[in-house]
Design goal:
globular; mainly beta; seven-stranded antiparallel sheet; 1 helix; ten-stranded mixed sheet; Immunoglobulin-like; 270 residues; single chain
Length: 270
């Protein structure tokens, strides 16, 4: 059961917070209670408007749905996860920002099997999960469709090739965008291709200091493109990304990060 904070403590949190088991799910999902118990265990869970999820009003490609999850309105976020209630694989990804080195924000593309709530949940240092979300209208079929790369006989020749760019901001943050060629197979396609997906990216400064870790699962779209808001050291001339997939392949990229705009040319990642 989800842990409910005692009524005596309610005065200690903002009035717009509602406890997940004492209020109806704002998205009216038939599986929310089971998903919440499975994901959060006995932790405290609140619906919080400061956790924002953005999706398109019209989905043109169910295998490439742009999503952003933003919990920068909260302080002391230790982890941010994205969930899709009605997808066959509900846990999409998790970002763990290193303390004071990254913000609780990520944008990426998602595969959708049917219309579903898309939620972001941010864990703060007091042990409370703050949940926000939207309902995504979509025709579906994205999770059970084979990857486009499978139509190319030589798709393995570009596996792991990466492109990236860093935009430094005057406030010390930097926007990092990285795209890696990978089929991101869910294992649910009719061609019986097994699950094959990038499962982790470690983002580091030039000296090796951790900035953020992104754990990904099968619903992340083919050729994953992620955007993060990081806080590298002023002396970092580059950002290093170390990744791996569930077959043990290793992917490494170095993205130059001078004060002017910079770009990473396509490189082989395996």
């Amino acid at each position: 059961m989800l842990r409910i904070l005692a009524a005596a403590l309610l005065g200690l949190v903002p009035a717009h917070l509602v406890y997940a088991e004492t209020a109806a799910d704002p998205l009216q999902s038939p599986v929310w209670n089971d998903l919440a118990r499975k994901t959060f265990g006995d932790a405290a869970v609140v619906f919080d408007g400061r956790v924002k999820v953005t999706v398109p009003a019209i989905v043109e490609n169910q295998a490439q749905v742009p999503v952003s999850a933003d919990a920068r309105g909260l302080a002391n976020v230790e982890r941010l996860i994205v969930l899709t209630d009605l997808n066959p694989i509900q846990h999409v990804l998790t970002i763990t920002p290193a303390q004071s080195k990254a913000e609780a924000y990520i944008s990426f593309r998602l595969k959708i099997e049917q219309a579903t709530p898309v939620r972001a949940a941010a864990l703060t240092s007091d042990g409370v999960w703050h949940v926000g979300g939207v309902f995504l209208e979509a025709a579906g079929g994205g999770c059970s469709s084979p990857a486009m790369a499978r139509g190319d006989a030589d798709w393995t020749a570009t596996l792991g090739n990466a492109q990236g760019k860093v935009w430094r901001q005057a406030d010390g943050t930097a926007r990092l965008r990285l795209r890696v060629r990978h089929p991101m197979d869910t294992g649910l396609a009719k061609d019986n291709t097994p699950a094959f997906f990038i499962e982790k990216f470690d983002v580091k400064g030039a000296s090796g200091d951790p900035l953020a870790t992104v754990e990904m699962f099968e619903p992340v779209a083919e050729d994953p493109t992620i955007t993060l808001s990081i806080k590298p050291a002023a002396s970092d001339a580059s950002i290093n990304i170390d990744g791996r997939d569930n077959n043990g392949n290793i992917y490494r990229s170095v993205v130059p990060a001078p004060w002017n705009q910079s770009a990473l040319t396509t490189t082989s990642g395996h």
